[in-house]
Amino acid sequence: MNIVITGSTKGIGLGMAREFLQRGHDVVISSRRPDAVERVVAELKATAPARRVVGCACDVTDYGQVETLWDKTVESFGSVDIWINNAGRDATKVPFFMLPREEIPETVNTNMIGMMYCNHVAIPRMYKQGHGTIFNMEGFGSNGQIRVGAAVYGSTKYGLRYFTDCMALELKGTPVKMCYLSPGIVITDMLIPPPEQRGRGWEEAKKTLNLLADDVETVTPYLVEGILKVQKSGDAVRWLTPKRIRQRKLRYLFKKRDVFTPHGL
Ligand SMILES: NC(=O)c1ccc[n+]([C@@H]2O[C@H](COP(=O)([O-])OP(=O)(O)OC[C@H]3O[C@@H](n4cnc5c(N)ncnc54)[C@H](OP(=O)(O)O)[C@@H]3O)[C@@H](O)[C@H]2O)c1
Question: What is the mean pLDDT of the chain?
Answer without folding.
Answer: 95
